[in-house]
Amino acid sequence: MIRLERKDEQTLKLTRELGEAAEHRLDLYLFIPGELNVDAQIIPEQEFYLQGIFVNRTYSSRAQLAPLVQSRLISRSATQSDRPDPKYRLSLSLYAYQYVIAIEAAGRNLLSTGEVSREEIGELLELTSTILKRLRRNVPKDSGLSRYHVNIDNYLSWQTEQQLLMLAARLPFADDQQDLRDILVKVAKREHQYRDEQKYNSSVVNDDSTRMSNKMRLLRRLIEYPITFKRKTQELGVGEQRWLKATVAAVVMTLVSFLLFESRLILGDITAMFLLVAALLYGAREFFRDDIRQKIWLWLRKGRPKWKHTYVDVNSEQTIGRSLEWLDYMPYEELPEEIRKARKGSAPQRGETVLHYRNDSKMLPTRFLSGYVETRESIVLDLDLIMRVMNPSSHSVYRVSDNEVVEENVEKRYVLNLVVRDVEGDGRVILQRFRIVVNHARIIDVELSE
C-alpha cells in the first residue's frame, strides 16, 4: 500500500513498503492543469528532478509493535561492560526506528477506522509501556554510548507522548468512552514527567514548542542515519552527450568548410561578396548547430533512464541495491490505457501537462542486516517550482443569505492529480490516484480518490 501525505506547506511525502521481492518499479504521473502552461522550457526536467524529488530508503519490517532486533538489543544492553559493543548504536537505532514506525502506523490505523476499541487502545498502551521499559532497563556504562541512549530515550518518550495526545484529540470517543481519553492523556503526562525527572531537556526548551520540535527533529535524524542507505548518484549519458556534441560540431564544420571552398571557386578572389557568403555560412552554422544537437540528443535519450543510483549500507559499506530513474514530460495520448482510466480523463483534462517519474530498482536482500528482508522507501515531492507559476489572485463569489446578497472573496486554487503505479517483481500491480489541492503558497488538501 502506498501512502501520500502532506509533509509541510509545499512538500508531499510518498511512502511505500517494499516487500521481499528483489525487483520493484514505481511510476508517478503528475497531472498539472493546462492553464499553468508548464513545459520543459518553464520547468526543465533536470531542474525539477534536482529540486523537487528526494528519495531515501531504510530498513523495514512487517513486525509492527515488536521490533525484530528487540532481543538482540536487550541482551547486548544487559551484558554491556567497559568495552562497548561497536554495533550497539546500530542495534539501538534499529530498535528505536522500528518502534517509531510501529506507533505511527498504529495511530493511523486507529484514526482510519473511525471507531474506538477498548481492546486496541489497551493493547497499544501495554505494548508501548513494555517496549519503553525494556529500553530503559539497562543503560550502557560507556559515557559515549550512554549519551546516545539518552538521546534515543528522549525522542521515543516525546514521540510516544505526541502520538497518544493526537489520539486523545482526534478519536471520536463516545460518552461512555471518555475514560479512554483520560487514560491516553494520563500516560502522555507520565512520559512528560519522566523526561523532566531525567532532565533530558532544559526548561527553556520545554517551554518553547518550536525549539522542542526542532530538537526532536534532529534526534529523529540521529535515529534514522545508521539505518538509511547511502545513495550514490550517477547521471547517465554524460559521455554520450560529449561525443554527440563533438560529432555534430565536426559534421557541421565540414559542411561549412566545403561550402566555403565551393564559394571560393565560384566567386574567385576574396571579395566583398565572398566575405558576405562566409559570414552567412558561419551564422547558419551557429544557428542550426545547437538545434540539431538538441533534437538528436532527445531522440537518442527518449525512453532511456537518465540517472543511476547505488544503495550502500552505511554500516558494512556493501552495495545492497541499484536503481534507474526517468523523468519526462509525456503527451496525454502516449499514456498507458490503465493510467488514462485511472485519471478518468475528459476533453478538458487532456490539456493537462503530464510529468512522468519512473523508478526501477533491484535490491540484494542477502546483504541486508541480519533479521531484515524488506526496505521502506520515502519520496518527498517539492511543489515549489510549480507553485511559482500559479496565479496568486483572488476573485469575488456572490450568494444569497437571508434574502441578502453576500460577497465573498475566494482565493484561486488548483487541483493536481497524481496517479501512482507500483509493480513488484511477482507482477502484482497497485494503482492509486490522489487529488492534491494547492494555491500559490501552500498545499491545502491531499485525498485518495476512489
Tell me briefly what this model is.
The protein has 450 residues and is α+β, with helices and mostly antiparallel strands.
Outline the fold blueprint.
Layout: E1 2-6, E2 11-18, E3 23-32, H1 45-52, E4 53-60, H2 70-78, H3 88-113, H4 118-136, H5 143-170, H6 178-198, H7 203-206, H8 209-224, E5 230-235, H9 238-267, H10 272-301, E6 307-312, E7 319-330, H11 337-343, E8 353-363, E9 374-382, H12 384-387, E10 394-401, E11 404-411, E12 414-424, E13 429-438, E14 443-449
Antiparallel strand pairs: 1-2, 2-9, 3-8, 3-12, 4-9, 5-6, 6-7, 7-8, 10-11, 12-13, 13-14
Q: What do you see in this structure?
A:
It is a single chain. Helix 3 runs antiparallel to helix 4 (118-136), helix 3 (88-113) packs parallel to helix 5 and helix 4 (118-136) runs antiparallel to helix 5. With 450 residues, this protein is α+β, with helices and mostly antiparallel strands. The protein is globular, with a radius of gyration of 29 Å. It has 3 domains: 2-59 and 230-235 and 310-449, no CATH class; 70-227, no CATH class; 238-301, no CATH class. The longest helix is centred in the middle third of the chain and has 30 residues, at 238-267. It has helices at 45-52, 70-78, 88-113, 118-136, 143-170, 178-198, 203-206, 209-224, 238-267, 272-301, 337-343, 384-387, and strands at 2-6, 11-18, 23-32, 53-60, 230-235, 307-312, 319-330, 353-363, 374-382, 394-401, 404-411, 414-424, 429-438, 443-449.
